[in-house]
Amino acid sequence: MKDLKLSTEQKAAYDRDGYLVVKSFLSAEEVGMLYNIATDDDVLKDKAFDFNDQTGKRTKLTLWFTPGDDAYGLLTRSEAMVNAVQDLLGEGQVCHFHSKLMQKEPKVGGAWEWHQDYGYWYKNGFLFPDALISVMLALTEATKQNGCLQVLKGSHKIGRLEHSFAGEQQGADMDFVNVALERFELVHCELEPGDLLFFHPNTLHMSEANLSDKPRWSMISAYNLAYNVPFREKNTSCITPVQTVTNDAVAKSGAKGLSADRDFLSKENEITLNVK
Q1: pTM of the predicted model, to two decimals?
Q2: Number of separate helices (H) and strands (E) present in the chain
Q3: Strands (DSSP E) along the chain, which ranges?
């Protein structure tokens, strides 16, 4: 694991562009271990649910809140990750809101419509979008062919757009998105396994369906500063400061997968499916 010490230039780029790519955060051995855990873990499979896009294609995800002592929990609690989040969010106690394993299988993995993460999290009752951040870790290659993330560079400065249902997902108001597509540069965030992508909750982003013959797996962790207390979200991980671990904890974890007693999200309890 790379000891992330973000430069002044990197922090300025995040503030300007609404996203930041960090290459080779994890070694090939570390990311290979995490991917193997994911593909072999019966708990992850049992706790997964589908989010259908507008065409009915499905993307599987498994989401949990409190980070534990498994390999994924240790990753999200690592000093490198937490310190980088602190650098980008600024003053406040860093808390882990949730992590999710995104599984876009070949040919069947669905799209994610144009949206902002705060389009979802606004419905959870968070007041301050600048106190939140998403961090994507590529577990496999992410390419144009298998549906890598696309962002509109600088679009976080628009502020929150109205969102409504697009399939089972939350989609941003397309009248605004279409104008934004004319104003902002569209960037395909192609990633290698082990790369990180940080992005702001108001950054407009989407991904196409995976029509390739290769899977696209990633883990996305959301962090929040403790002062940003939501009024609808009942899980307290988002206001519980992270207990950090050393950067070698993942490698020393012995490829330990998630335990069944983690506080997983069930689809019927997803707030954004129930709050208009």
Answers
A1: 0.92
A2: 7, 13
A3: 19-22, 49-52, 58-64, 94-104, 112-115, 132-138, 149-152, 163-166, 169-172, 186-189, 196-199, 205-207, 216-225
Does residue 192 belong to any structural domain of this protein? yes
H helices of 149-190, in order, are: 174-183
Range of the domain at 173: 12-255
Q: In what order do the strands lie in the sheet with 216-225?
A: 19-22, 196-199, 132-138, 216-225, 94-104, 58-64, 49-52
pLDDT value for 164: 80
Domain count, the chain: 1
Q: Per residue in 79-94, pLDDT tens? A: 999 999 999 999 999 9
Helix (H, G, I), strand (E, B) or coil at 209: coil
Q: Which residues of the chain have pLDDT under 50?
A: 273
The CATH code of the domain that includes 140 is 2.60.120.620
